[in-house]
Design goal:
Strand content: 15-25%
Domain ABC transporter: 15-249
CATH architecture of the largest domain: 3-Layer(aba) Sandwich
GO cellular component, one term: plasma membrane
CATH topology of the largest domain: Rossmann fold
Number of domains: 2
Pfam family, one: ABC_tran
Order of helices and strands: EEEHEEHEHHHEHEHEEHH
Protein name: ABC transporter ATP-binding protein
Number of strands: 10
GO molecular function: ATP binding; ATP hydrolysis activity
Radius of gyration: 18 Å
Bound molecules: adenosine-5'-triphosphate
């Protein structure tokens, strides 16, 4: 279990982004965005296609370097850290399109991030931990299966399991539910709720509004690279600018 960082003060956000700006050539994809997440909080990040959600996540996780702004995680400035360093601190993402190793079993797929994402992971303990993770995502009975033989919803769970192997304090779940049926969406929401109940803060990026409204304690809305709303889900969704930009899509 990862200990709380000695840099983080009680009551401080686990993540704090200030004035984050990302440009691609002359185009500003993210425009001076402020973003905070409290420890253990569930935040929905929404916005129309092309509004900057992925760019924001890429800046937070280190896949992209913002031109301006600062990002603090557990009280430490991580703006200049590489993605793997942020992951080792517990800032972890899952990807919209799972890309598991099809030649490896589910168990081995979870062991890969266990061995390499965690600085302190003892390889000899990784089999037990991998089984615990597979049990937490409901796939322990299929530990020796290939990902090729999984359904879509099981693949999404495996992707979340691979992220869990890095012991996140903050998990960014990027469109984990796209293309799933209503009951499968509920399964993923329930899984995310269980992970959150274990103390993991979660940013949910999702177009399925039913899931966002059910899951989120707070919603942040991006439109054309700018944050236009941030607050209580029901109040945010009644916000005139959000209705104009977002609803009816
Ligand atoms: N590498 C890049 N080079 C140039 N423009 C980019 C690049 N990445 C993103 N953009 C542009 O930045 C804007 C924001 O894109 P981004 O992918 O962050 O939006 P999004 O909200 O995640 O969209 P979606 O919901 O469709 O995933 C878009 O106009 C996109 O075309």
């Amino acid at each position: 279990m990862r200990l709380v960082s000695p840099h983080q003060q009680v009551g401080q956000p686990i993540l704090q982004a200030k004035g984050v700006t990302k440009r691609f050539g002359g185009f500003t994809a993210l425009d001076s965005v402020d973003f905070t997440v409290a420890p253990g909080e569930r935040v929905g990040l929404i916005g129309p296609n092309g509004s900057g959600k992925s760019t924001c996540v890429n800046c937070l996780t280190g896949a992209l370097t913002p031109e301006e702004g600062t990002i603090t995680f557990q009280g430490q400035d991580i703006t200049k850290l590489a993605a793997w360093q942020r992951a080792r601190m517990g800032l972890v993402r899952s990807f919209q399109i799972p890309r598991p190793f099809n030649k490896l079993s589910l168990m081995e797929n979870v062991q890969v991030p266990l061995r390499f994402a965690l600085a302190e992971a003892p390889p000899e303990g990784s089999a037990n931990r991998a089984m615990e993770i597979l049990a937490s995502i409901g796939l322990d009975s299929k530990a020796d299966w290939s990902p090729k033989d999984l359904s879509q919803v099981e693949l999404r769970k495996l992707e979340l399991g691979r992220a869990l192997a890095a012991s996140p304090r903050l998990l960014i779940a990027d469109e984990s539910m796209a293309g799933l049926s209503d009951s499968e969406v509920d399964e993923i929401v329930e899984l995310l709720e269980r992970l959150n109940a274990d103390g993991i803060a979660i940013i949910l990026i999702e177009h399925i509004m039913r899931a966002v409204m059910r899951f989120s304690q707070r919603i942040v809305v991006l439109v054309a690279g700018k944050k236009i709303a941030d607050g209580n889900p029901h109040e945010v969704m009644r916000h005139e600018d959000v209705e104009r930009a977002y609803l009816g899509q």
